[in-house]
Amino acid sequence: MLAGAHHDPHGLLGAHPVADGSGACAGVLFRALRPYARAVTVVVDGAGTALDDDGDGLFSGVLPLARVPEYTLLVRYGDTAENPDELEIQDPYRFLPALGDLDLHLIGEGRHEELWQALGARVMTHQGVTGTRFTVWAPNARGVRVTGDFTYWDGTSLPMRSLGSTGVWELFVPGIGDGALYKFDIARADGTHTVRADPMARRTEVPPATASVVTESRYEWGDARWLAHRGDRPVHEAPFSVYEVHLGSWRPGLTYRQLAAQLPAYVKDLGFTHVELMPVAEHPFGGSWGYQVTGFYAPTSRMGTPDDFRFLVDALHRAGIGVIVDWVPAHFPKDEWALARFDGRPLYEPEDPRRAEHPDWGTLEFDYGRTEVRNFLVANAVYWCEEFHVDGLRVDAVASMLYLDYSREEGQWSPNERGGRENLDAVAFLQEMNATVYRRCPGVVTIAEESTAWNGVTRATHHVGPDGFGGLGFGLKWNMGWMHDSLEYMAKEPVHRKYHHGEMTFSMVYAYSENYVLPISHDEVVHGKRALVSKMPGDWWQQRADERAYLGFMWAHPGKQLLFMGQEFAQGAEWSEGHGPDWWLLDPSYAAESDHRGVRDLVRDLNRAYGATPALWERDTVPEGFAWVDGDAGEDNVFAFLRFDATGSPLLAVSHFSPVVREGYRLGVPEEFGAWTEILNTDATRYGGSGVTNPDPVKPDPVSAHGRPVSLQLTLPPLATLWLRPA
């Protein structure tokens, strides 16, 4: 017991009937483990009986009682009558297990979809007494104890009991409530100890402190209408324009509640339909941007409590903004107080070090083949959707999960049972996660950051593809190929772009293989890659014009849009988590303020026109929603195509990536429309452009072009994108 290696402390401590020679009850034996106490008294019906001091903090005594009574313990720490320093407490060892058999069965099966209700620290009333139930999965431990600020970080007095073969340890501690700090003191198989944060903690201390915090939500949501209607239209047939945010640096120093007063209004004004939050799960190192998670069930405490985070989500919903959070089930850091070798042996990570070590990030990968680990992650996905009402999960680094040889050389990995390089356990996990989230959380979308050509990322899990695998079941996938190719094209001087024309058109070869998001994310504006506007060639005017034209092309291209904060106003510097976006660029006292405000005005107008034009989103995932007008005008650096809504109503998008004006540029269009009107022009003066526009409705000429019997003659501004629709 003193070594913290007892699996059944309740069998020794607490109150137990003592039988005489005939088997009848001869009294009740009381035992209490209270290190540092001077005396312990049992109080029954107001009368106290002192227990004997057996040494090493153990107190015991037999009372002549016919049955185990209701009782409390009066523990004295003071030396004298003048300084008694007494504390009357409920005895944790008089309570039955506070975790039910069904919970234990589901945990053992790896199918507890509300795992956070069973494991971790939960405030509750048990056998008429209020306290906190502590539970933790540690199957390799010889013993587990609760330690915290309520024990002055000495866990000797609070050993937990093992609940059979499940590997779960449990203890109900009366009197402990919201705000208490705690960890688990685990005795490893070799007898050494490790003190760990709770893997299921729903709140943590502010880093760099690492304790878990008992928490109880009292938040009352106000977004019932939002939740009821968010799934009215399938996401792949709906407008979906995302503003990616790093909460800690969007406005540095703001709390969740302060962000709630600013972020929803800003995003709504710009017309984005969703925000995507870079990981908000607790992480010890701010420079990881949240991608090295230690508290998978805890929103980071840097900006407030879990209820404060709920307040922010609620505020975004009430503003009509959906909330996507980045979710990181691909790996976890090696911090000695967190998940790595949690109970003395590999537990959350595979035992095979070749599969455990993530070669790129100095972290550990999850053991997706272990039912309890898979359950931990699947339930975590559900947790964020149900407890925090988030509308989507963007799953980070999916490719690193899918391939056993990801970033590994020959000899550093072993094939799967089929002899292939696919991680079959990870495939099964992702399928289970997606199926569970979509079943339990109507209206939620899952999004894969998957950088390879894996077949069927957004295919239903029950539809088997040519590779023999069912689909992974995601709703959307980041189109990393489009991002890389299009940015490579834009980085070229206009005179050289004709030699790279195919980099802008190649995406349409595979555009309908998955349901895509076009991402200009944080990853593209850090680590020397430069901000979006700084990737563009030429002088400052040309750089801004290129960014505006590129955004117009991006918003018209099949797929949903994602833009990282700061790029909406052409920030020239790379993003830094230390200071966030350069908001000073929008200060009216800054000489070039209008240049940056013009780009932001364009983003606002792009989003508004996009939302009002079903042709740009209603048929995103079917070939019938797109047709090239001219995809081969490499000599002119022109891309012209049509988008169609479900009724066949078109939008004509024309992007011109040369710094010259082209008069009378002829493009074939559908003949059934008598005139076309320019609804957006990225060269408009209000955006900082040169003001070359097509101000009047343009009527088609009976001149065939691009395989169509009628055509328009347009003036193409320099480095600009035009949108036109039938007048």
UniProtKB/TrEMBL annotation:
Residues 244-604 form the Glycosyl hydrolase family 13 catalytic domain. It catalyses: Transfers a segment of a (1->4)-alpha-D-glucan chain to a primary hydroxy group in a similar glucan chain. The keyword Transferase applies. GO terms for cellular component: cytosol. It is an enzyme of class 2 (transferase). GO terms for biological process: glycogen biosynthetic process. The active site is at D396 (nucleophile), E449 (proton donor). Keywords: Carbohydrate metabolism, Glycogen biosynthesis, Glycogen metabolism, Glycosyltransferase, Transferase. Its EC number is 2.4.1.18. One of its GO terms (molecular function) is hydrolase activity, hydrolyzing O-glycosyl compounds. CDD domains: AmyAc_Glg_BE, E_set_GBE_prok_N. Pathway: Glycan biosynthesis; glycogen biosynthesis. InterPro entries: A-amylase/branching_C, Branching_enzy, GH, GH13_cat_dom, GlgB, GlgB_N, GlgB_N_E_set_prok, Glyco_hydro_13_N. Pfam families: Alpha-amylase, Alpha-amylase_C, CBM_48, GlgB_N. Catalyzes the formation of the alpha-1,6-glucosidic linkages in glycogen by scission of a 1,4-alpha-linked oligosaccharide from growing alpha-1,4-glucan chains and the subsequent attachment of the oligosaccharide to the alpha-1,6 position. Belongs to the glycosyl hydrolase 13 family. GlgB subfamily. NCBIfam families: branching_enzym, PRK05402.1, PRK12313.1. Monomer. This is 1,4-alpha-glucan branching enzyme GlgB. It comes from Streptomyces paludis. The gene is glgB.
